[in-house]
Please model this.
Amino acid sequence: MADIEVSNGMRTELKAVGSKNIPGRFAYSIATGMAKYGSDCALPDILHAEFIRSLFGHVKIKNIDITLARESDGIVDIVTWDDPDVLAANPALFKPPVMTMAGIHVRWEVLIKNRFQRSA
Model:
């Protein structure tokens, strides 16, 4: 992935307003949306994960109903606080151990939002 026509690291046809042109091998591609990333590649039989965060901070979770999400096409699994094997603290990485998700008091945790979530 390279920029359009580059001469000695400087773009020949683009200029920055108010300052000298800054060299950048991928700047044009990224700024124009032409850059390709790993998520742009579609591979067969690949699973995608989506983390859904709470819209509100410092809230108390009363209930998470995942029945509609589980019934949706293409859903392989849904992970919530009730899945202790997946969400156990990892003492090898963090001292003191850090839980993957909070149980009831939400500050930044992953939650299911609603059944009208965008599809990947």
Summary: Strands lie at 6-7, 10-11, 59-60, 105-106. The longest strand covers residues 6-7. The chain has two domains: 6-40, 47-120.
